[in-house]
Design brief:
The protein has about 220 residues and is α/β, with parallel strands linked by helices. It is about 25% helix and about 25% strand. The chain has helices spanning about 35-50, 70-90, 95-110, 145-150, 185-190, and strands at about 5, 10-20, 25-30, 60-65, 90-95, 115-120, 125-130, 140-145, 160, 175. A five-stranded mixed β-sheet has the order 3-2-1-4-5, sandwiched between helices. Strands 8-7-6-9-10 form a five-stranded mixed β-sheet. The longest helix has 18 residues, at about 70-90.
């Protein structure tokens, strides 16, 4: 079994080939690039497939991060996963960036109680979700204002995870200063969680449609120029 795993939801451009039957990463590429995911992703996929000695015919499915994160990055990864899945008639599973961090936290920090995953969302917002020690979601992922994030935490949280965690509470331990889990964590999250491969943004787009330059609509019956 070989699952192609893609992550372009944040500042990393990552791909790996994962064997869920043995929990083994067969080949991986993960690089912090900031922007330019569309130009890099397909090359990384080729590198991963070649390193593992695999072809697209060997794939049994795909996993892709669906957000929250970068609007453009999310669309790049989701579009690539959908395209490959359609071409090869393969299932594709979406996992969130919050879930990937929860899986990594379980493996690395081993929290002994509920914990919160917090990702900096920009525009004065933080993406927040709580998980049990066993990685089960305890609520829905949501965006909260930065100044309300501390008050939104469960009182029984034992630690905070993610790149928005270090500045939030000084009395709780923090872990994994990243906006998304490693590509290995994304791969393993695909075994625990399953969402449709559709973007999860949690907040409105930064870009707004222009309204001042719109042409007036032609009235019914009016001749076109």
């Amino acid at each position: 079994m070989s699952v192609l795993v893609l992550d372009t939801a944040a500042r990393f451009c990552s791909a790996c080939l994962y064997d869920p039957s043995t929990d083994a990463i067969l080949a991986a590429r993960e690089e912090e690039i900031g922007r330019g995911h569309a130009e890099r992703l397909m090359g990384d996929i080729d590198d991963v497939m070649n390193e593992a000695g695999a072809g697209f015919g060997d794939l049994t499915g795909l996993t892709v991060t669906i957000g929250p994160g970068s609007f453009t990055g999310i669309r790049v990864g989701v579009a690539a996963a959908r395209g490959i899945a359609v071409a090869r008639s393969l299932p594709v599973t979406g996992v969130t960036t919050l879930e990937s961090l929860a899986v990594q936290a379980k493996a690395e920090a081993g929290p002994d109680g509920p914990f919160a995953v917090l990702i900096a969302g920009g525009r004065g917002q933080i993406f927040l979700q709580h998980f049990s020690a066993g990685c089960a979601p305890l609520d829905e992922a949501r965006a909260v204002p930065e100044d309300e994030a501390a008050a939104s935490l469960r009182p029984d949280c034992v630690c905070l995870v993610g790149n928005a965690a270090p500045s939030l509470r000084s009395d709780l331990p923090t872990a994994i200063d990243r906006p998304v889990g490693t590509i290995g964590a994304v791969a393993r999250a695909g075994r625990l969680f399953s969402h449709a491969p559709s973007p999860l943004y949690l907040r409105g787009a930064d870009a707004k449609p222009q309204t001042g330059f719109a042409l007036p609509r032609r009235a019914d019956g009016e001749d076109a120029a």
